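Need a sequence for this fold. Nothing fancy.
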């Protein structure tokens, strides 16, 4: 498996950095994981967006899905779409209310919102706890602790496992998600403090503790907000899991 970072800024895009967006690739199958603000521009720098074979959204906060609206425009109105050589409908895996919420985000006004439907662009599939396949990948979606329905994702291929926490506070589901994985892509939105609200995000310390307790092979930190000191987050994580790294936009990692 190969992981490419399209964007990694937490909560909002940062200076010259898109919000959450990643590509996971194996056997020529290109799986998008999140498509937050600014990530479609980054995707076009490394691949033809029509080459996406499927898209997964862990949850529906804008910093993880805002550019679905832009992708919709491209897939609907590009003057030379590669149909029928490529499938017209892009498989999109997301929380069950994604068809409605993404249509609401796309509609320009209240009158059009009542009739906006994206099923001419996407084949929607609700995330579910049972293991399922997307192309060559086996995927397990685990409910995590966030203010909106949200999932962590465990993606397996060829005996290697990538786990992505999505956005979450500490919860027991993360132990199952991260157990023994080769690479853990963990959000770490802030430094550790008893004053942080529960059920929202992980600190660097908590991400490091998770990686150590789960026995992961490698820890990559992402979703650090522009107003947060990434060096301080990394120091917290590294104290618990030596060798932790902060991802960079455009970086590529082999799993």
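Here you go.
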């Amino acid at each position: 498996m190969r992981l490419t970072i399209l964007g990694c800024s937490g909560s909002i895009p940062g200076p010259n950095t898109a919000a959450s967006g990643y590509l996971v690739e194996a056997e020529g199958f290109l799986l998008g994981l999140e498509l937050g603000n600014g990530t479609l521009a980054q995707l076009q720098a490394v691949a033809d967006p029509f080459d996406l074979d499927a898209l997964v959204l862990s949850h529906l906060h804008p910093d993880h899905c805002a550019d679905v609206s832009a992708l919709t425009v491209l897939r609907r109105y590009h003057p030379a779409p590669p149909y029928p050589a490529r499938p017209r409908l892009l498989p999109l895996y997301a929380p069950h209310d994604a068809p409605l919420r993404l249509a609401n985000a796309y509609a320009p006004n209240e009158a059009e919102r009542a009739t906006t439907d994206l099923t001419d662009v996407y084949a929607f599939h609700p995330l579910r706890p049972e293991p399922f396949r997307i192309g060559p990948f086996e995927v397990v979606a685990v409910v995590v602790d966030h203010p909106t329905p949200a999932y962590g994702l465990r993606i397996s291929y060829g005996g290697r496992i990538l786990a992505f926490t999505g956005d979450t506070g500490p919860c027991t589901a993360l132990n199952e998600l991260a157990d023994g994985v080769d690479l853990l892509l963990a959000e770490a939105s802030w430094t550790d403090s008893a004053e942080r609200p529960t059920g929202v995000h992980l600190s660097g310390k908590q991400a490091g503790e998770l990686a150590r307790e789960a026995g992961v092979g490698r820890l990559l930190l992402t979703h650090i907000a522009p107003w947060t000191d990434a060096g301080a987050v990394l120091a917290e994580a590294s104290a618990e899991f030596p060798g932790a790294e902060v991802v960079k936009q455009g970086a590529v990692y082999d799993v």
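For context: The mean pLDDT is 98.
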